[in-house]
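Lab meeting, item 3. Inverse folding demo.
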């Protein structure tokens, strides 16, 4: 059993346990609830875009993007947009939302007493944002969503897999996979060099991942530092690998490619997966709650092209781009598919 130490505070004795930390939830509960919900079977070969409809585009842009474009007289380049996104998104994970909400409430109170109505209005906007972030990330864990993701990732026929995470940012899902299928190797790829320290490096080292023990097959708690992970700063297009990975995963990547570039996005996955390997892809769901999230957090999140779609649309893109869809369904805020190159 893993020793209890400050940097490894949870052991197998804590399986089934959940608790709230300042910025996130610890969740070692098994996946009886919050599971990946398999959607109804679909005959992808006969589904048409007329039946499935088209994704919704999020177009309320961040003021940072608009200011950059006004200053430079051109569209914000995509890598620059990701660099802004990563710093901005990570700032949410790094903040204690209850404390930030309290600070914003005090700010609003002071502004009201000074009759500074604009400042009071802006501070109330911050109060709403921190209230929603507290619920979405910390209380309901809808972003990391470990229980549903474990359920989505379950049952892959792999042993000591080589896992490639395209557009890895904090690398969360690859760590979840590595705990479930231990003993292999993980390669995280992101062209935003800052992510290696600023996102992956900033991920709480004491966060426990529920997985299995390769020697016994029993449940085991894993930590990031125990995993064999490489962070590669590179454009996906420039990676030197062939079809050598057992699992290629992307979380929130393909919806950033307009239809003309979707084949490129799917080709990214096919290029590196073994013929009998798996591609795991998720995209944010088209749902009133996600639409509301991207509306409320537009200033912090919307730096580049983004679609919200349903799982039939994600599956149809995968099918059209040469993948067999083995499994499709929904986790809390994302759609998920497990595919194999046809
Ligand atoms: C939306 S994020 C993925 C979501 C991620 N799970 C998170 O928590 O933010 C997409 C990531 O892919 C990276 N990315 C986008 N296009 C890329 C490319 N062509 N090569 C390498 N990384 C890329 C971005 O820098 C960004 O960190």
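The presenter then showed the designed sequence:
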């Amino acid at each position: 059993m893993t020793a209890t130490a400050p940097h490894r505070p949870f052991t197998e004795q804590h399986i089934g346990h959940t608790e709230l930390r300042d910025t996130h939830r610890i969740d070692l509960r098994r996946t009886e609830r919050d599971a990946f919900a398999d959607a109804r079977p679909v005959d992808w070969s006969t589904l048409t875009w007329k039946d499935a409809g088209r994704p919704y585009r999020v177009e309320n842009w961040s003021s940072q993007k608009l200011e950059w474009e006004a200053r430079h007289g051109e569209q914000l380049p995509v890598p620059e947009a990701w660099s802004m996104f990563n710093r901005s998104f990570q700032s949410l994970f790094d903040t204690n939302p209850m404390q930030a909400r309290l600070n914003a409430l005090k700010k609003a109170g002071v502004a009201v007493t000074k009759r500074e109505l604009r400042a009071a209005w802006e501070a109330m906007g911050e109060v709403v944002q921190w209230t929603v972030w507290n619920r979405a990330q910390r209380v309901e864990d809808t972003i990391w969503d470990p229980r549903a993701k474990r359920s989505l990732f379950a049952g892959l026929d792999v042993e000591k897999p080589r896992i490639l995470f395209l557009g890895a940012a904090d690398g969360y899902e690859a760590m979840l996979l590595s705990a479930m299928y231990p003993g292999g190797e993980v390669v995280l790829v992101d062209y935003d060099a800052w992510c290696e320290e600023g996102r992956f490096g900033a991920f709480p080292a004491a966060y426990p991942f529920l997985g299995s023990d390769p020697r016994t097959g029993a449940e085991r708690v894993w930590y990031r530092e125990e995993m064999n992970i490489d962070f590669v700063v590179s454009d996906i297009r420039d990676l030197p690998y062939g079809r050598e990975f057992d699992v290629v995963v992307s979380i929130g990547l393909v919806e950033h490619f307009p239809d003309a570039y979707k084949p490129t996005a799917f080709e990214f996955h096919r290029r590196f997966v073994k013929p009998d390997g798996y591609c795991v892809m998720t995209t944010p769901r088209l749902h009133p709650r996600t639409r509301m999230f991207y509306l409320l957090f537009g200033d912090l999140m919307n730096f580049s092209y983004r679609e919200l779609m349903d799982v039939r649309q994600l599956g149809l893109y995968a099918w059209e781009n040469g993948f067999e869809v083995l499994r499709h369904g929904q986790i809390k805020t994302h759609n998920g598919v497990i595919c194999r190159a046809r």
